[in-house]
Structure to design on (127 residues):
């Protein structure tokens, strides 16, 4: 059964342009998004009581990279159940507990939207 916590899609990405494009695509499908510049920023957001239904995670970021963020996320029972979709130009051989991996630049927006929809149903019914 998919994780159905109330909350936005948390975009953990250090590249502002990439974050903006992801947010626009998700907003078109009715998803709310929250941005984080890196893993540290994302943990700070969650630690302040922020919520997320799914996390779209880059791997190579300053301050706290994606794998370090994933380990911290999974080690805290408050957030361990949030599904993670890795979205990186350098997909890992071992994605850890991620529900999916998409390579930046090779995935069309529908691939990401389909994965997000599986983890966090859209607020709008599809017709």
């Amino acid at each position: 059964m998919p994780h159905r916590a109330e909350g936005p899609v948390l975009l953990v990405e250090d590249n502002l342009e990439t974050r903006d494009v992801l947010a626009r695509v998700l907003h078109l499908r009715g998803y709310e998004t929250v941005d984080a510049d890196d893993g540290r920023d994302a943990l700070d957001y969650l630690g302040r009581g922020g919520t997320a239904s799914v996390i779209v995670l880059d791997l190579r970021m300053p301050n706290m990279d994606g794998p370090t963020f994933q380990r911290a996320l999974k080690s805290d029972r408050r957030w361990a159940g949030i599904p993670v979709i890795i979205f990186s130009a350098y997909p890992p051989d071992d994605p850890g507990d991620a529900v999916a991996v998409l390579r930046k630049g090779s995935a069309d927006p529908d691939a990401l939207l389909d994965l997000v929809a599986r983890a966090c149903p859209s607020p709008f019914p599809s017709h």
Remarks:
- The radius of gyration is 13 Å.
